Amino acid sequence: MEILTTLQAIKDYAAQAKKQGKSIGLVPTMGALHEGHLTLMREARAKCDIVIASVFVNPTQFGPNEDYDAYPRQFAADCEKLESVNVDAVFHPEPAEMYPEGYCTYVNVEGDITHKLCGAQRPGHFRGVATVVTKLINLARADEAFFGQKDAQQVTVIRRFVEDLNINVHINMVPIAREENGLARSSRNTYLSPAEKEAALVLSRSLKAAKAAFANGEREISALEHIVTEELHKEPMANIDYVKAYAYPSLKPLTEASEDTLLAIAVKIGKTRLIDNVILSA
């Protein structure tokens, strides 16, 4: 596996792959890799000739009071995991390489899809995401890019700017990877104490309860959101950020649920903010 740390290195690597007629799959990550990330890598491996992963904690998607400095960084361990799933190259730049002095260009997705859910709670977050993903897709000359359903709103935003800006890449959304107990895999799970990790199981449990109600015929959005909220309230450590249901992938408001309804939640367990979701048909 090649380690690429400069813009020129990844450009040269991608150019050589294209010269050989190979397809390129990109998996953007911020590192602290877990099984969820490796699932994305395997999907990319199955679809593409060359797999490039990025490991870059992107400063522009963190707010001033968020966990940029504390975000886990473990590049050596990440490389071992990437090699275990046959990734061909990893792009691991310094922030100054991606955002050099004088940098002043950003991709800003306007409209309702960025003003709800995590976008409402994290102003500027999706501007940072859209900017870095645009740069990574262009640098890697990616034919396919892979993202997890846990960040379903992010996938909608990325698909929106890819279409609007006529970027020639296909965006793949891969189902959420979960631990055996149901907890959605996340790099931020490393922040949780054993007691907090046990408490965090309430996220998947609450979504499972709503999905069961939907399967039994409940279609009222307010009722489904109420089921999730009531279940979350049973856990003293849980502090609800949001519980919302929208049509997916449009993220338009609904009064009645359908099979394409996204039920999404954000909850703080202690100081750690976790997100999870279900698509009711899945």
From TrEMBL:
Beta-alanine binds at Q61. GO terms for cellular component: cytosol. It catalyses: (R)-pantoate + beta-alanine + ATP = (R)-pantothenate + AMP + diphosphate + H(+). ATP binds at residues 30-37, 148-151, 177, 185-188. It is found in: Cytoplasm. One of its GO terms (biological process) is pantothenate biosynthetic process. Its main location: cytoplasm. Coiled coil: none annotated. It is an enzyme of class 6 (ligase). Keywords: ATP-binding, Cytoplasm, Ligase, Nucleotide-binding, Pantothenate biosynthesis. The keyword ATP-binding applies. The keyword Transport does not apply. The active site is at H37 (proton donor). Pathway: Cofactor biosynthesis; (R)-pantothenate biosynthesis; (R)-pantothenate from (R)-pantoate and beta-alanine: step 1/1. Its EC number is 6.3.2.1. (R)-pantoate binds at Q61, Q154. SUPFAM superfamilies: Nucleotidylyl transferase. GO terms for molecular function: ATP binding; pantoate-beta-alanine ligase activity. Catalyzes the condensation of pantoate with beta-alanine in an ATP-dependent reaction via a pantoyl-adenylate intermediate. Homodimer. Belongs to the pantothenate synthetase family. The reaction proceeds by a bi uni uni bi ping pong mechanism. This is Pantothenate synthetase. It comes from Selenomonas ruminantium.
